[in-house]
Amino acid sequence: MSKQLRLGIFIFLGLVAMAVSIIAAGGFSLKKTYNVYAKFDNISGVTKKAKVKIAGVDIGILRGISLEDSQAKLKLSIDKNVKLYRNGVARIVSMGVIGTKYIEISPGDSSVEELKDGDYIFTEQSSSLEAMLKNISTRVDKAMHNEQYGDMMENLADAIYSLKDVMENLASENENVSKIIKNLNKFFGDVAAISSENRKDLRAIVLSIRDLSEKLDALIERISNGNGMVSTLINDEQMSKDLKETVKGLKDTIGKANKLQLSWNYTGRYDMKDKKFRSDVGISIMPSHNKFYYVGVSNVADHSTATDSEKDNINKLDALLGFRSEKSEIYGGVIRGKAGVGFGYSLFEPIWAEFRRFKVHLNVYDFVREKHGPVIDAGMRIGITQWLYAGVALEDISYKTAVTPYIKLEIDDKDLAALLGIISIAAIASK
Predict the structure, then answer these.
(1) What is the largest CA-CA distance in the chain?
(2) Which of 1, 155, 330, 345 is deepest in the core (most CB within 10 A)?
(3) CB neighbourhood size of 420 (10 A)
């Protein structure tokens, strides 16, 4: 076995492992889906690609967020096997007090018509803690306009604003909690003096505050007794140090991932000799201007419909590692399923630029082919737009010389960079 072939096999195995890791960690799925839309007045805290769930089970993902008629319009991609109905309801739910937000769906009653692709689903705005506090404050302000209970209303207002401060500074504001309790005790003593016309509204306020107070007492007690994650982070110096180092590592990893230049590549080729149209697809990853990776498949076709003469040449792996200077690049690895090397040159723009007006390339592969020697392909392409190129190639010059015009699409994808950053973060977290 030649050194070139061993080198090609080694690079190929490494790139295959990288591709498998990317696909596995990215959660790519071939499931069929359909889209429904939901409108909310406020989606604060909801991120793109948030989960869509029914009874806690993942049934889809948030694919897009836009603004329409002063409302947030969400595009929900739903598993084709999950049925939603016209009276179904979508709401935004948080996992715990400070957890990640997702979209929870009540599918509705099967007695009504099913939702189709592109339909809108009813929404229900979930009540947040901030909204509840705002509602309490509004009721208090209304009651404070009654001069008959001026002193009592001032005490109540102090209690409400103190309570809001405690919620924002729970770990360090225990003195404010005591102040709230004292003000609430005074408030409950003054309730007996309220006239019947305001008694109903103020009773609702008291019940809301009492419920929040009980939850605060339970949470503060858990922290004081050393139970739970918050107490551990506060008291365990080693864990605090490890957490700081982890956060620093995450920042470095995210910064590197954001610098990656990635793109989807599609090439459509027409072999004028065989009168066949062939397609190539792949992903380019450029961590810097001087280095790049490429993983893809050449001659994509359905193996079951291919003729016997075509089966040996379809669905061939491309896996390359390349290095670049200002105007030229050299690369090696697997080209159409065979060990090979290649060379490219950009006449005007830098070889790593997003748009190159004129570029030539040469590929040499399958060095162990008998009789006719290695396969040699050469060609050139012209940039039409930043993402569309047209060119012509001479394939297998040493044997049959097939003239092949082609078009090539190169579409940048920032989500791929984010995906690689997430993979790196997961690797750090697992250590």
Answers:
(1) 107
(2) 155
(3) 23
Segment 269-310, tens digit of pLDDT: 998 877 888 899 999 888 888 899 999 999 888 767 777 767
**Which regions of 186-324 does DSSP assign to beta strands (E)?**
261-271, 276-288, 291-298, 316-324
3-state SS, residue 362: strand
Q: How far is C-alpha 148 from the chain's CA centre?
A: 56
Residues 254-273 have pLDDT tens digits of: 666 566 778 888 999 998 87
Contact 139, 205 (CB under 8 A): yes
Q: Which residue has the tokens 């409302």?
A: 71
Amino acid at 423: I
Number of other residues whose CB lies within 10 A of the CB of residue 27: 11
Measured between alpha carbons, how far is 58 from 38 in angstroms, rounded to an integer?
17
Give me 124's structure tokens.
């229900």
Entry pTM = 0.40
Residue pair 96/67 in contact by the 8 Å Cβ criterion = no
Tell me the chain's radius of gyration from C-alpha atoms.
32
Report CA torsion sign: 211, 40, 55, 52.
Answer: negative
